[in-house]
Amino acid sequence: MLKNLQNFRKIAVTMIAMFAISLGVNSQNYWYVRGEYTFSPPLPQGTFEMGFEDGNNVTVDGIEYTEIVSWWDGIYGPVEEGIYRVDGNQVYFRPWLAYRDVYGEEVLLYDYDLEEGDFFHDDDEHPMQVTSVTTIIDNNGVERKKWEFSFMQLPEETEYWIEGVGSSRGFLNVGVYEPGDEGEVFDLLCMHNGDNVIYIDPDFNTCDIDEIEENTVADSFDIFPNPANETVKILNDSNLSITNIEVIDMLGRSVVCVEDGDEINVSELPQGEYFVKINASDNVIIKKLFVNR
């Protein structure tokens, strides 16, 4: 996905970086992100760590993609986000819809051919414009281009891309912003390809893959079926007792509450995406639920 360069050295660099961004053989990409939410409950307050992680290879419409999932350390995970593919200097993404293996339309996620002054998603409500294109040296001594962006409608908002790594806001958070007192902020901490550290944000200096892991308590809980249209059961592989379950819509409103049980009735809920908040002893686990009609 790296831009073709003129000399042998840069071609070699390109080949190395292409292996890093692809699944390659026996390796996966991991993006670690620091997040901050100031929304109302049930979403977490303050800072937290989240990740994006490559999954399996899948073929859709005769085209090979890579699955990508996200998780919030200590909150929920993994959540299937969709699939992406690399085509030359462009990266394309298809979001996962309500059912597994059903995906939305393909969208352009990155364009590493952009030059200074170019717009990205110029037909969007808040297009981004390239303010500068420079070069950095990654943690392996590889030259990579760096694009600085500004949002046309929000000049105080900025974002940068690192070639073969992704956005400063995390791999899937391109153009993500929430102005005002309520919203979300993402900062890319680092990117790994397998055990190899590809990039670390200079403001953080370190990013140990062993220090940022999925929460084992959250992994012990799941919801089935998902998507659902009538009854949902909480699957509990831990030794923790569930005290109550709450279903919360995307506006933060509690729409279903169950005490001392492991089943919830969602038959009256409109189709859409919800959070399921599970209180088990002193633990709060949040899972995503899709209601489909």
Can you characterise this structure?
Strand 10 (about 160) and strand 11 form a beta hairpin. This protein has about 290 residues and is mainly β. Mean pLDDT is about 80; it is low at about 1-25 and about 210-215. It has helices at about 10-20, 215-220; strands at about 30-35, 45-60, 65-70, 75-85, 90-95, 105-110, 120, 130-135, 145-150, 160, 165, 185-195, 195-200, 220-225, 230-235, 240-250, 255-260, 265, 270-280, 285-290. The strands form four sheets. An eight-stranded antiparallel beta sheet has the order 6-5-4-3-2-1-12-13, with no helix packed on it. A five-stranded antiparallel beta sheet has the order 7-8-9-10-11, with helices on one face. It has two domains: about 10-210, no CATH class; about 220-290, Immunoglobulin-like, CATH 2.60.40.3080.
